[in-house]
Amino acid sequence: MADAALWQRYQDWLYYHDELGLYLDISRMRFDDSFVAAMQPKFEQAFKDMAALEGGAIANPDENRMVGHYWLRDPDLAPTPALKQEISKTLDAIDAFAQKVHSGEIHPPGAAKFTDILSIGIGGSALGPQFVASALAPESPPLAIHFFDNTDPAGFDRVINQLGDRLASTLVIVITKSGGTPETRNGMIEAKQAFADRQLDFARQAVAITLPGSKMDDLAKSEHWLATFPMFDWVGGRTSELSAVGLLDAALQGVDIRAMLDGAKTIDIATRVPRLKENPAALLALSWYYAGNGKGEKDMVVLPYKDSLLLFSRYLQQLVMESLGKEKDLDGKTVYQGIAVYGNKGTTDQHAYVQQLREGVPNFFLTFIEVLKDREGASVEVESGVTAGDYLSGLLQGTRQALYENQRDSITVTIPAVTARHVGALIALYERAVGFYGFLVHINAYHQPGVEAGKKAAAAILDLQTRVIQVLKQEGQPLSLEALAAKAGAADQIETIYKIVRHLAANQRGVLLAGNPGEPSSLQVRAE
What are the DSSP E strand ranges found in 69-130? Predict the structure, then answer.
């Protein structure tokens, strides 16, 4: 396409939000007018579906739940006065708690103020807070933040060792809907032990964010933790950053959470417009559908050209892939939907995998995240008339052009600066785009049966481990893997048992292995 035609296409498809100064450019997605016309009926239905969702329709039939993360940033839209009051009350409580921690009115037993946060959660209870901390926390925050976001013992040790003596002035925030999520429970138990090892009172430095009446809520209240904040059953983990899940961490770090909510609310309003070209989330969904033929046939590569937005692609991995990665559609038909997301940041990745993006397998489309403002204050010239920020902008534009010249499609989202308001807007924009795309491909974007299947499989393996240990203790003599499996009532799970005993032996957990590790069938297993 000639330069003049490209310039006209850019103008035809450029979306601009005047209040936010946000641009969305989909002109380098090579769809034509006939594609847009064919998609129009789908979008007309999607706009109606989105309106019903926001009105309180049951959108998660597996759990009979509404989906209402939109109400978090505009409580007036909540379907009942009670929900409206609950949202506003929680936000006020977060503000008040953060102010009291910052002033020292709420403080640890042995110090004048809290110095650090240990945030314990997984999935949406970690990825959102991590992204916002990386993007928005000031250089010298009132409280520095650390995360337990896995069940890796060495990871726990590393964080506790980093805290060192500051564990005595660390505020622990445990984030879990029920208290039953194993990774979060394990992190809490490990943190409690670390406190006990140093003769510290965990309860006097702990806060819970959980469903009212949950096991975690009961535990926190029975042990007299500092505070509890509610999670809502109508907010999924991957859309929970603008609830207490993300806002408490952010407020304690000195982030303007009201500005984040305002940015999200502003985008929500823009994405309620039932006209494709005037709705940025619908434009994103249109582009995703075109790129992957409505079947996720191409990956979404996300490249933020700003160090502070490094974790945005990681945050989007869960939001997009957990929402859209579904085996069945709403009619129960097998469809295998989803869009794979990966990315890091520009220009770092121009020295990593942009070579493949331009000349390798064309199995992707790219999203550039551009930030207009380079820094606070003036920049030194690295060449005559050129700053480092000019290079950053030039490399983005050059990569976009080079990719398009080789038939690689891209989207560019541009914001004026990385502020709390604009981060809130980005979160809302992609939440809404995921919702629209889910409606377009007729899947439920608000449940995650595959995640639950993995949890159930893990629980079964741990149950088998208990049986294996019991058999070894009862037998008191070496057993082959085959004999051990038979006695544990799991003759068809020899490989799983092999991996269980190998792990136990490596950690001196009362199991000894004799034989050639390279020939598992030769191994003899016994209790130590």
Answer: 116-120
Instruction: Tell me the whole-structure pTM to 2 decimals.
Output: 0.94
Do the Cβ atoms of 143 and 101 come closer than 8 Å?
yes
For 132, 151, 239, the CA distances from 266, given in Å and listed in that order, are: 18, 37, 17
Residue 173 has pLDDT above 80, yes or no: yes
Both tokens of residue 208?
Answer: 């819970």
Measure the CA–CA gap between 167 and 249, rounded to whole angstroms: 17
Report the distance separating Cα 233 and Cα 83, nearest Å.
12
CB 77: neighbour CB atoms within 10 A?
18
Q: What is the pLDDT of residue 255?
A: 98
Q: Residues of 342-364 as b/e, b for ≥16 C-beta within 10 angstroms?
A: bbbbbbebbeeebeebbeeeeeb
The catalytic site residues sit at 322, 351, 455
Q: What is the pLDDT of residues 184-241, one digit of tens each?
A: 999 999 999 999 999 999 999 999 999 999 999 999 999 999 999 999 999 999 999 9
Residue-by-residue DSSP string for 50-68: HHHHHTT-EEETTTTEE--
Per-residue CA distances from 320 to 183, 282, 314, 414, 436 (Å):
22, 15, 10, 20, 12
d(CA 378, CA 417) in angstroms, rounded, equals 15
**Closest listed residue to residue 354, CA positions, set 307, 303, 316:** 303
Q: Are 323 and 238 a contacting pair, CB within 8 Å? A: yes
User: Which residue in this structure is represented by tokens 């559609």?
Assistant: 329
